[in-house]
Amino acid sequence: MPASLTLDGFRADLAEFLYQRPDEVDLDGNPLDAGLDSLRIVTLIERWRETGADVGFVELAECTSFAQWWQLLAARQGGAAGAEA
Questions:
Q1: Is the Cα dihedral 64, 67, 25, 74 positive or negative?
Q2: Nearest alpha-carbon partner for 13 in 73, 54, 83, 56
Q3: Residue 82 pLDDT more than 50?
Q4: CA torsion sign, 63 to 80 to 11 to 13?
């Protein structure tokens, strides 16, 4: 069974696609304004689904910040990740 997604893992995944360090990722930032296109978002979704987070593209597209993404991901996988939100 894959490990649950943690907030640190979430930030690391975003940082990889934003060409930043994890501590540079602004969770209040807008994903589209930060430079994530639909292909990168779909790639992230697939990665996060492997950890048990059941989210879809449209759900993430409706969110206006990375913090909202994390809230959705944490709620969808339950367990330890929700406690770290």
A1: negative
A2: 73
A3: no
A4: negative
Neighbours of 34 (CB within 10 A): 15
Tell me: the pLDDT tens digits for 23-75?
Answer: 999 999 999 999 999 999 999 999 999 999 999 999 999 999 999 999 999 99
**If you search the block for the tokens 């969808």, which residue do you land on?**
76
Q: At what angle do helices 66-77 and 7-18 cross, to 10 degrees?
A: 140
pTM: 0.86
SS (H, E, C) 62-79: CCCCHHHHHHHHHHHHCH
